[in-house]
Design goal:
heterodimer, A: 364 residues, alpha/beta, six-stranded mixed beta sheet, 13 helices, B: 144 residues, mainly beta, two-stranded antiparallel sheet, 7 strands
Amino acid sequence: MRGQTAIIGYGELPTKRIYPGRTMNGLLADAAREAMIDAHIQKEDIDGLVVEGGSIYPTAVSEYMGMAPNFITGVSTMGASGATGVAVAAMAVYSGLAETVLVTLAGPRESGDPWGSAPTPGMRTEFENPYGPAIAANTGYALMYSRHMHEYGTTQEQLANIAVNQRFNALENPNAVFQGQPIEIKDVIDSRYINYPIRLLESVMPCAGAFACIVTSAERAKSFPNKPVYILGAGIASDPLTTWQRDRLTVSAVTRSAPIAFKMSGYGPKDIEFAEFYDCYTILEAVCLEDSGLVPKGEIGPFFAETDTTYKGSFPINTDGGQLSGGQPMDAGGFRHVIEATRQIMGRGGKRQVERNDLCLVNG
Amino acid sequence: MENMYTKPLPIPGGIFGTTTREFTRPFWEATKKHELIIPRCKSHGGLFFYPRELCPVCLSSDLEWVKVSGNGRVYAFTIVYQPNDPLFVEDVPYVYAVIQLDEGVRIISNVIGIDPADVKIDMIVEAVFEDITDDWTLVKFKPK
């Protein structure tokens, strides 16, 4: 599949705290329309559709948008659904199931309430909830954080650099929810605990927004006006949904997905020029960067203490501010990493454009 | 007593979840007797948790409940300041932890009887049983 498919256009709605009165369908269709305009393609010339499949039926989306795609599916890898969706779209194009696939995801939100995790009856309601887990997804990542500190001596001061550097990047991103609000290490360390060791500024803001992109064959991509962004390799791997069910809390499925992607691409970690990595919490980004091979295992703390990861730095990471500063529109959140990588490779980063922009590693 | 406890009781998942009331009844009957029992796969001999209808290692359905010591150590923990369920706000900050039992299996619980700031990973703990209602007893852990 190496280099056989490419992204030819993308759409992004500004991430906001809320989009009052707006539906998931409406938001993702908005982003899709932007992507079609950007790619200079008509709806009728798109024959594949990939959406997030855990909270909406794919055929409900195609119906809403008046599309009759041949290839249609939903991916339900939660926050990773955007990146997974692009990989699935590339597979569909490469295997001939479709010629041109739209991937579009949205996170709606209209009230100011924080998210609670839904009390779906199951293991959680029987063996976790009686003990009072922390709000939303915080618990599992705090457990991971506590183990990483214990096993590798990682400190909060070190990982605070993730939040600070990404906020710096977000200052040049008009679509970011925290645009115009710079922070320093002290602000992160002084922010309140949601649950130890996770502080407020190390966790994402629940937001609303949408992202979309269009994937077609490398051959067909040449007939469209935008610089094609070639998909050189991809890997998909999974962990137990419940963090504490993993054998090791400090090791993620990226240890398995990254080698597949690298092998397919013909490149290695040392070739990568910038990275866009899933960052619902500083600790998850930290663990995934290690597991990808970009940073040796256990050395992420010193790495962030010593490396300028802003768009101006020696190794830029999450150049749009990531989810930590850009905002997390529910399960669409991780799609921003694909879209920002595409934008940077197309050379449209504006003030936050990275200098070396040929090869990016994206983790959804 | 039943009416005083307002926090969530253990609610089995039902047929679209992981367990039914019938399936995990032995576990909660044991905690009422202040005993901790864990599912064991008779096929490969290993313990696992949470309870499932099949062994997650070898997919065997040949299972049994075995009593464990209740001794273990803190494998990972968080101190909760903002609980998911507002009913726990009155308890913050409290410790929500993964306990690794001496028998090797891990379980979620609270570490109690200690200032949360003093909890450390690898701290030795033992099971204590809290009769929260006439019908339900939770297993928690305190430093040994």
